[in-house]
Amino acid sequence: MAQQAVAQPTINRRPTRIRESLGDRIFLTAVYALLTIVLLIVLYPLIFVVSSSFSSALAVSSGRVWLWPVDFSLRGYQVALSNPQIVTGYANSLYYTFFGTIISVAMTVLVAYPLSRRTLYGRNTLMLFITFTMIFSGGLIPTYLVVKELGMLNTRWALLIPQAIAAWQVIIARTFFQVTIPEELAEAAELDGCSDLRFLWSVVIPLSKPIIAVLVLMYAVGQWNAYFDALLYLKSADLQPLQLVLRSILILNTTASGSMEASAMIERQQMADLLKYSLIVIASVPVLLIYPFAQRYFVRGMLIGSIKG
Amino acid sequence: MRMTQPETAPASGASSTTIAAARPRRPGVPTKRLSGWQTLRRSLRRHWQLYLIMLPGLLYFLIFRYVPMANAVIAFKNYSVVSGIWGSPWVGFKNFEMFFNNPVFWRLLQNTLVLSIYALVVGFPIPILLAIGLNEVRDGLFKRSVQMVTYAPFFISTVVMVSMLMLLLSPRLGVFNLGLQALGRDQVNFLGRPDLFSSIYVWSGVWQNTGYAAIVYLAALAGVDPMLYEAAKVDGASRLQKIINIDLPGIMPVAVIILILNVGSLLAIGFEKVYLLQNPLNLSSSEIIATYVYKVGLLNANYSFATAVGLFNSVISMILLIAVNAYAKRVSDTSLW
Amino acid sequence: MRKNLSLSIALLVILSMLLSACAGAAPAPAASEAAGAAGQEAGGPVTIRAFAPQAPDIDLATNSFTKEAEEKFNINFVWETTTYDGNSAREKRQISLASGDYPDLFLLIPWVDQFSQLDLLKYGQQGVILPLNDLIKEHGPNIQAALDTYPIFKAMATAPDGNIYGVPQLIECYHCSYANKMWVNTKWLKALGLETPKTTEEFAAMLEAFKAQDPNGNGKADEVPLSGSIEDYGVRVIPFLMDGFIYDDDRDHLILNDGKVDTVANKPEWKEGLAYVKSLYDAGLIDPGAFTQNAEAFKKIGDNADAQILGAGAGMHPAIFVTTGDNAPYGADYDAIPPLQGPHSTYATYIYPSVPGATFVLTNKASEEVQIAAIKLLDYMFTQEGQIRSHFGEDGRDWRQPEEGDVALNADVEPILATIPQPQGEEPHNSNWSAMAQYFQPKAFRDSWVQGTDIYASNGYERRLQEATDLYNGKESADLFPSWTMWPDPATADALAMMRQNITDYINQNALQFVTGSKDLDADWDEYVASLEQLDLQGYLAAMQANYDQSTGK
């Protein structure tokens, strides 16, 4: 059981240097070696994507690009960034991601924390109530009808509200709260006359930065990658998020079955060849940029500072 | 409120668990069994603020999840727009029968299960291993790079992912076959081998998702009490022992919950990646329920049929979830409810 | 605990049932309310809500053809757009229809997403979409003329009940109609002193030479004699080869035997054809990737930078597997060869180039004014002038009148127009509806477009395809199964779709298993034929027969 709420000030001192045993050093070396291999394996395709995005389309399709850019070219980026739909989509996606994440994280914490309290009557029933929705879903049309009835069609709300809370995230957050916030702490606070809300605000949230970072990251990523709701609920092109625009360029048209003629097909193929990799890079930058911010909270013992009043 | 509360700060060196156990029981704890209503009333009076803040979230689930759910009756109906969901004629189990009596049904189910169980068995522990490995590494450029790089593939779209995979596995020009060639071995048409399909699917998924999935465990490890490590160090525990005795128990509750949820979503494999990797040679192991429904059901806009299949998936998933949850509760006292 | 749990579930279910009962009642579309919805004052423009796919380089709202059409037909368009992602577009269209929240008009693109025949029948019978027969008679003389002149177009547009629920595009794309062409590296042929192969044996010998005689001259046996891929557009290698044995339509493997629908896939000729393909495969002449890779991987072989390695490629046109155009190193090396003379036949696989279904559909939300305005616009696109304006764009900017020395695609025909390629880096013109307007392009019209005379240059590409297709023209089987003139029966369509999926999958899968050797043609053939029967082949053929008989009016 983790009980960092009761951490000692001494923890913040540099740990006493005890010489590592031989076994530990071998173990650590193995860990480093393994991670290095993992790093290289995962890195190579990524470098390939980035290099391809800076190469000419012919250089990519003829296999001349394998590590560094060949026939250095910025045309993919130029074409992408001069396309008004991509630019509007980018701005929209940033908007949806920012506000969507705030709404989602807030609502998730507000549901998950009470569910983590063992003294809350009905918590198991409510957990079942929430878990049930992960497995049974009403399907597209009925959900669409609800969104329509609420007057959200073709408004920005349609992308912020109908997917606001993910049951998965609620369950994970509630598990974290259960582990990191001992029931005894809450009870003691209650004895002190501290209300549930106040306790949530001044104790639970500061103590839960890692899980909040996880929630922010996952909701932001989810919002950023989402396209299906936009497709269903939005009708005007100027509300569309980036992913919807990207898909129309990158997707393979599986239904085509021969009715697309050569000229149209070549045009689309060239567009896809040209933009494929640069669009991945452009579209991934924001979600990659937020990672280091979240990363700060994934460091061992980082919570100590936050609870030292 | 200040965090330094005298009551909760234990004497130095003492384990907090003992303190917690020694603390007097809080007032209001029922000493004898109360009826459901009484407990609810007490709980409401005591935690009214908590119930209040849950309300928006619970309403959300009710409106956006439960209201549409009742319309799953489509599965039993011959759905028509004009008559609406409730006005469409009932066809009972015709849609289910059509699905079960299909000669390929059992193969679809088998393929779906093989893919999803394989994906679970491999995809569940690897992010944990990555997180623990990263946790051993000192914070610095290397650690941050590994974290960032393993997280990045998550953002490569399925279409691009599959086309890169096809190039890597190409029998003529693919990296793997060039390697085999250099070793003097025969080339292998990886994507044409039904027996290799599940491995291709699962391991490319590992490449794409492990870094992202590890985030939750990294966060869980960040919450482990550093005092425990200090104590272990003093005891002369090796790194491996610390992992087994401190890290693993620290992430166990989260891991168990994720495992339960993963088992519950076992049948919910998305169709897109499988569909794009399919070809006539591997079809005997790559045709799953989702791709088949996509090709047959949705293409003809047969909502009743598609919903029937979805409902079938859900019922199986629910049974699995309840079973695993009950089991987890027995053996690890972590559970959903 | 357990009791409480089940109690609460029961409560929840009841609650959600109640709530959804209100929501569920909503979707029934009220046809009556729609009529007045357009709400125009006398003389003001007619507002049309239109659902349309929008390409990244087109903005329908500000498009210059939209503006012109709005002015000409007194329309005010309100667009509901989807993208060119076909799956998503279909989903969105289906949901708009299923939820009752659909617009007045659908303007679609066949290769993105269009109404299938089943959609038309289903929604037509529900009254959601309107039959257009009377509108066309009264306000669409040019559409009517097209229906009268082109019997297949008429068969495609007219449902079995006689109603025209939607209008498909009439595109007689010549090179698309013979998709399964074989493109051979003629540079290699010359280098090795070979003749263009005419028979299946000569073709095998040519591939053998490609493999053994190092035509790219780099001293390595790195040549890929024949490759292809697994998608559409004629890239599968088997149909071209099989056509020397028995007619392979590359889709359903169906044929007519004296008016009886039959499959080719259990015939001795099919088995013989497979044995031939297998002999090529066993000799290492067919790239194993041809059976598993997508077009991109195929193209990687065609474009391979170190050395040219591709000998022959299957495909509707060469740009699928090799970069063509003015700077491409290998783009000019591949030429089509005519269908091969096999032991039994010399067929070319044919398909009618327009896809059954409909791209222009009016719903019951359209008021009479909307209906008339929309059909008049469609009628305009069925005139040559309107077709050029809507599909190509502005005169002098996107296309020009022919000049002295211009040669039409069909050199015997008077040229009508020449397209002006958009200079690199210029803003998209946003001046036409592109593929969305492609309604009336019979072969005679397409033949009259100006093309460059160098068939290997970018501006002569269509001519290259035209000349290649001439080699295949007319060589289809007289007994082919004309699936494009048929309408499915909604009552049996679901069961039929599953049978069709099961059977075609089984045939394609086994064809490749026989070829690659995971099944033995001698030992496993009988079992294969028996399994086809177990998948209810007879039921399938009977259902197809019923469709066919109904379409021929028997």
What do you see in this structure?
- The complex is a heterotrimer of chains A (309), B (337) and C (554).
- Chain A is an all-alpha fold.
- Chain A has helices at 22-53, 57-61, 75-82, 84-116, 123-135, 140-149, 157-160, 167-180, 183-191, 196-207, 209-225, 228-233, 242-250, 262-289, 291-295, 303-307.
- With 337 residues, chain B is mostly helical.
- Helices cover 67% and strands 0% of the residues of chain B.
- Chain B is built from 17 helices and no strands.
- The longest helix of chain B has 30 residues, at 303-332.
- Mean pLDDT of chain B is 79; it is low at 1-31.
- Chain C is α/β, with parallel strands linked by helices.
- Chain C is globular and about 75 Å long.
- The model of chain C is unreliable at 1-40 (pLDDT under 50).
- Chains A and B meet through α1, α4, α5, α6 and α8 of A and α1, α2, α3, α7 and α8 of B.
At a glance:
The complex is a heterotrimer of chains A (309), B (337) and C (554). Chain B is mostly helical. Chain B has helices at 16-22, 36-46, 48-69, 84-87, 94-100, 105-123, 125-136, 141-151, 158-169, 175-182, 194-222, 226-234, 239-264, 271-277, 283-286, 289-296, 303-332.
Offer a few descriptive terms:
heterotrimer; A: 309 residues; mainly alpha; flat; disordered N terminus; B: 337 residues; 17 helices
Instruction: Tell me the strand percentage band of chain B.
Output: under 5%
Proportion in β-strands of chain C: 5-15%
Q: Give the overall shape of chain C, derived from the CA principal axes.
A: globular
Count of helical regions of chain B: 17
Provide mean pLDDT of chain B, rounded: 79
Radius of gyration of chain B: 26 Å
Q: Could you give the count of β-strands of chain B?
A: 0
Summarize the amount of helix of chain B as a percent range: 55-70%
Oligomer: heterotrimer
Q: What does the largest sheet of chain B look like?
A: none
Total number of strands of chain C: 14
Question: What percent of residues of chain C adopt helix (DSSP H or I)?
Answer: 40-55%
Q: Count the helices of chain C. How many?
A: 21
Parts with pLDDT < 50 across at least 5 consecutive residues of chain C: 1-40
Strand line-up in the sheet with most strands of chain C: 2-1-3-11
